[in-house]
Specification:
single chain, globular
Length: about 70
């Protein structure tokens, strides 16, 4: 279960995000995982583009959160 993954601003635009997604998918397939799910902020259009290009699509599922303490 991976909760957060970020690239430093200085590392963006070099293909590292795509490489990380590819590696996560490779490891998941090797482990028999049937699906990958991710969340992205609505305003993060750059990430939307990367994820769509990697084969992710908007799901009809609703993601719910309950905050239990300070962020």
């Amino acid at each position: 279960y991976l909760t957060d993954l970020f690239l430093a601003e200085s590392e963006r635009g070099r293909g590292l995000g795509q490489w990380l997604l590819d590696e996560v998918e490779r490891a998941a397939r090797a482990a028999g995982v049937q699906a990958l799910h991710l969340m992205v902020a609505p305003q993060n259009h750059r990430a939307h583009h990367i994820y769509h290009r990697a084969g992710f699509h908007v799901s009809p599922r609703l993601f719910l959160t309950k905050i239990l303490g300070p962020a």
